[in-house]
């Protein structure tokens, strides 16, 4: 006698589906955050297809991908047999200091894909995503300090909120005073993060971050958020955590709110139908 049990069993799969959907959406939001684009640069110099240099480039990028599965930083110098002195390729990758191994590998995989499609045939390229940085070139840059500004952005001005400005200054001061390659700071709603590429020495890192933070204070002044990316380090602050507020954040928030509302509504409907099914079954069984 399975007639009364079947309607109830039908209500179970939708609940599981909705739960999986919610989890997948949250995972997708986290993943897309790590893979958010910051900047890219490609060398004007091109290499010849099928040349030893191309083989060395492919070897460097493969080494970066493989290494990202077990480390959050590494650098390489590749010169395969048959290569000339000017065919040597240098490369490195750096993941954000708080990323897990799997998140680092995913970010680097995404970065290499974007770099390969953007810098086709270029002898050198660098790409920064929210969660990681990759670079390769035919000149030795590994271990060399470089404070060239590669990306700087400032948010809208803070409207007469001295408390936020005070907290912002405190956050940046802490980041500048720290001694680690990866630094995080927070005061109230304001959060900040700073990081150096680990091919720098501790002294070089401190010098790079001091320059980035001073530039950030000067250029972003009274802004609600600011990003300052130099070639070998970066410093950022925001009321939203590590990621600065982008132009489409409001639309994303609206979409997420609508999605959550729909899921909640459907969940309530499923519970109601399940209750109704039980009531009808009970009524039918009583006849």
UniProtKB/TrEMBL annotation:
CDD domains xrefs: Gnk2-like
Sorted UniProt keywords: Cell junction, Cell membrane, Disulfide bond, Host-virus interaction, Membrane, Repeat, Signal, Transmembrane, Transmembrane helix, Transport
TM region(s), chain numbering: 256-277
Signal peptide: 1-29
Record domain Gnk2-homologous: where: 35-141, 142-242
Broad class of where this protein is predominantly found: other
GO cellular component terms listed in the entry, alphabetical order: plasma membrane; plasmodesma
GO biological process terms held by the UniProt record: defense response to bacterium
Membrane topology value: Single-pass type I membrane protein
InterPro entries the UniProt entry points to: Cell2Cell_Antifungal, GNK2, GNK2_sf
Subcellular location: Cell junction, Plasmodesma; Cell membrane
Subunit structure comment from the entry: (Microbial infection) Interacts with Grapevine fanleaf virus (GFLV) 2B-MP.
Similarity annotation: Belongs to the cysteine-rich repeat secretory protein family. Plasmodesmata-located proteins (PDLD) subfamily.
PANTHER family, A to Z: ANTIFUNGAL PROTEIN GINKBILOBIN-2-LIKE, PLASMODESMATA-LOCATED PROTEIN 6
Annotated protein name in UniProt: Plasmodesmata-located protein 6
């Amino acid at each position: 006698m399975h007639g009364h049990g079947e309607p109830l069993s039908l209500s179970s799969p939708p609940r599981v589906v909705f739960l999986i959907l919610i989890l997948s959406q949250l995972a997708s939001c986290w993943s897309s955050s790590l893979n958010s684009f910051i900047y890219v640069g490609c060398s004007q110099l091109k290499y010849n297809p099928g040349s030893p240099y191309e083989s060395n480039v492919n070897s460097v990028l493969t080494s970066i991908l493989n290494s990202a599965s077990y480390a959050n930083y590494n650098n390489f110098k590749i010169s395969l047999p048959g290569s000339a002195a000017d065919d040597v390729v240098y490369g490195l990758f750096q993941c954000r200091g708080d990323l897990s191994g799997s998140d680092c590998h995913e970010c680097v995989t995404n970065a290499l894909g974007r770099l390969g499609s953007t810098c086709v045939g270029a002898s050198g390229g660098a790409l920064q995503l929210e969660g990681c940085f990759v670079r390769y070139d035919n000149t030795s840059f590994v271990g060399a300090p470089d404070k060239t500004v590669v990306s700087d952005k400032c948010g809208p001005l803070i409207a007469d909120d001295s408390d936020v400005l005070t907290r912002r200054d405190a956050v940046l001061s802490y980041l500048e005073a720290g001694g680690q390659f990866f630094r995080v700071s927070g005061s109230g709603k304001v959060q900040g993060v700073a990081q150096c590429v680990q091919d720098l020495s501790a002294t070089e890192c401190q010098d790079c971050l001091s320059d980035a933070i001073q530039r950030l204070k000067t250029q972003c002044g009274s802004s609600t958020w600011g990003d300052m990316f130099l070639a070998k380090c970066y410093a950022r602050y925001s009321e939203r955590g590590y990621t600065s507020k982008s132009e489409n954040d409001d639309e994303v928030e609206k979409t997420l709110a609508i999605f959550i509302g729909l899921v909640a509504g459907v969940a309530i409907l499923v519970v109601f139908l399940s209750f109704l099914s039980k009531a009808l079954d009970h009524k039918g069984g009583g006849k």
